Amino acid sequence: METTDRKEKTIFSILLVISLAHLLNDMMQSIIPSIYPIIKDKYGFTFGQIGIITLVFQMTSSILQPFVGRYADRHPQPYSLSVGMLFTLAGILLLAFSNNYALILLAVGVVGCGSSIFHPEASRIAQMAGGLKKGLAQSIFQVGGNGGSAIGPLLAAVVIIPFGQHSIVWFSIAAVVAGLMLLPVGRWYKTQLHRLKAHSVIPNPAVMGLSSRRIYWAIFILCVLTFSKYFYMASMTSYFTFFLIGKFGVDIQTSQLCLFAFMGAVAIGTVLGGSVGDKYGRKYVIWGSILGAAPFALALPYVNFMLTILLAVIIGLVISSAFSAILVYATELKPDKVGMMAGLFFGLNFGLGGIGSAFFGWLADKTSIEFIFQVSALLPLLGIIAAFLPPLDPKKSGSSDISRDTAVVK
């Protein structure tokens, strides 16, 4: 059928624009942890206070997202992505000129609100543009964010560390560019709304055989797996630079470059995870990604500098492949609630990362940076519970994915 063929088509132009916007969005966000060594020395913050900064940013990024996604399921907002960039722009400008702890908290909170507005609808558009290749589409979208998270520390090392906090203002250009480039995407999305209203959601046949209790149990397992992944990622993104400085005596710029290597590996692993999940099944990607990172995470606190960086890169490659698979798996379980599921898991991503950062900051103040890496290394072992997820055969779900990118618009 003509409609089916149109829905099967993967629209790479839209995916690339969304991915690039995601890159710019997360690049701006990633400068927040990148400047921690600067503001810690400048204002005399404790590790606990650093953790609270991350907590405020991550919680404002997470709490609103499921609600934004649920609202968008019923009332799609084509131009909300550009609106989200306006919030990020305001937060970046405020962060550049904040001169006390309260203003810094306000600035990162505004940036977090921009993230809450951007992610759920952007994820929905990515899945819509992906046709039947949901995992690949989500990976292309997600790799933009991971790429931005990797570039942020590198730019911080080149721009912010030499020139100071006020140089953050230059990143506001990225918010303006992203907001403008998303306007055509909003127009494209708006033209699709009549098609969304005309077609109801067709569930994956494998999901139709599951009871509601089994579906909610599977979503709970996905939440636990997301907890294990992002609590561990919090220790790496917020404290890996401090770990390298404290244990090996490297300077700040070297530590930032090492963080860039880890985040770059995360970006590469994201693409691989989505493609493999489309072909072989998302359950096995989720299982292998989180549990597979465990032996490398357990070894990292006890090796020399070169092996530490090598293990960090391997961990980034392995553990990063999980998120796209988790998100698409969740939307397969609830195909009529794509926005809500995207908001929930992006929200858990940010929220758990923030809670983890605050917890590990508190624990570092009580013990040491090395100790938190020894403790956090146990988290990927929780990946074993992915064995209890029901398998959703991608071959079975192929034909039913035709309208999975659509939530019922009422």
Structural class from helices and strands?
A: mainly alpha
Tell me how many strands there are. Answer: 0
Total of helices: 19
Order of helices and strands: HHHHHHHHHHHHHHHHHHH
Shape: globular
Low-confidence stretches: 1-6, 396-410
Distance between the termini: 25 Å
Describe this structure in words.
It is a single chain. By secondary structure, the chain is mainly α. It is built from 19 helices and no strands. It has helices spanning 2-8, 12-34, 36-43, 47-63, 65-74, 80-97, 101-129, 134-163, 172-198, 205-208, 212-248, 252-280, 282-292, 294-299, 305-319, 322-333, 338-366, 369-376, 394-397. The two termini are 25 Å apart.
Briefly say what this structure is.
Helices cover 79% and strands 0% of the residues.
Summary keywords:
single chain; mainly alpha; 410 residues; globular; disordered C terminus; disordered N terminus
Secondary-structure blueprint:
Blueprint: H1 2-8, H2 12-34, H3 36-43, H4 47-63, H5 65-74, H6 80-97, H7 101-129, H8 134-163, H9 172-198, H10 205-208, H11 212-248, H12 252-280, H13 282-292, H14 294-299, H15 305-319, H16 322-333, H17 338-366, H18 369-376, H19 394-397
